[in-house]
C-alpha cells in the first residue's frame, strides 16, 4: 500500500491569501478525493530539525529566515531572497518550511528504513531554494535535503522534475554529486523564470553528464512533451541505474496555468504519471518518492494531483467531478467550473506552429542526449 504523508501544519506555509503558492490547492485536492469516495489515510511527519536544514543551507541564511520568522528586522534580507514579492516574510516561516522538509525526509526514511515503494508527500517540491537564497516561493529545499539523506544511506538517486519551471535549486546544490542524476523538463528559461536550465548545464567533475535539462518551447503540447520525455528519461535511467526515483510533480505545465505557457492537459498528466510509475518499476524496483510543487490554476491543479493519488494507488480514474465538490469550491474557480476530471479538449487546439514547436523540441532532446552521452561510461 502506498504511503501518503501530510500534516495540517503544512497549511502554515502561506505567503498570504493573494499569493499564488497557496495551501488551498492541497485542501481542494484532498476534498476532491473524499468527494470521490476515497478517504485519504495519511502519515504525520515531524518537522525537520535545524541540523537537517544545515545539511544543505548555509547558517547565515538560516539565521535570517529564523529572525524574520520571529518578526525581527533583517536589513539585508533581500540579499538572501527574503522579504521580496515572491518570498514575503511571515510569522512562523522557519517552522512552516521545516514541516515541509520534514515530510520529504520522512518519505525518504520510509524508503531506506522500511523498504516502502510508492510514497507521496502532499506538499513541498520547493525546488528553487538555493544554499543561501530563497527563490520562487521556496524557502528551504526539501527535495535536496531528502535526496542527500537517501544518498547518505547508500542509495543512488535519479531526480525527475516535471514542474514547468527549471529545478534550479536542486541542480545547484547537487551539481557536483555523482550519486545523483537530475532531469528537469521545463519551459525554456529564455522565456520563463528562473532563466536557467539549458542543455549545456551538465554538472561538473565526476558528475558531468548527470545533470540533464530539457528546455521546451512555449506552447508545447502534450504530444510533443511526451515524445521528448520518452526519448530522454528511459535512456538516462538505464545508463545511471538509480536505486530510488524522486519526483517533483508540479502541475503548472497545464494549459490553464497563469504563470507559464505550456499546453498540457490532465490527460497528458495521466500519461506522465503512468510513465513515471512504470519507470520506477523498471529501473528502481518500484521505489519512488513524489512531492508536489507548482501549479497555480485552481481549476486544474487539484485535478492533476488527485489523478496522481489515484494512479499511485492503482485506483480507477472517474469521468465526472462530484457536484458537491464543485459547489463547495465554486468561488475559487477562475474560468468557470470544470465539469470532469479530465479536460474535454486538447490543450493544443488553438496553437499555431504546432509542428514547428515539436520539431524544435525534438532537436533539443537529440542534442541533449548526444552531448550527455559523451560523459557516460
List key phrases describing it:
Arginase, Chain A, alpha/beta, 377 residues, 7-stranded parallel beta sheet
Describe the fold and architecture.
- The chain has 377 residues and is of the alpha/beta class.
- It has a single domain (3-373), classed as Histone deacetylase domain (Arginase, Chain A, 3-Layer(aba) Sandwich), CATH 3.40.800.20.
- Helix content is 38%, strand content 9%.
- It has eleven helices and seven strands.
- It has helices spanning 24-35, 50-54, 59-69, 93-114, 142-152, 168-173, 222-240, 266-283, 301-312, 323-329, 354-373; strands at residues 3-5, 118-121, 157-161, 180-187, 211-216, 244-248, 288-291.
- A seven-stranded parallel sheet has the order 1-2-7-6-3-4-5, sandwiched between helices.
- The radius of gyration is 19 Å and the shape is globular.
- The relative contact order is 0.14.
- The model has no long low-confidence stretch (mean pLDDT 96).
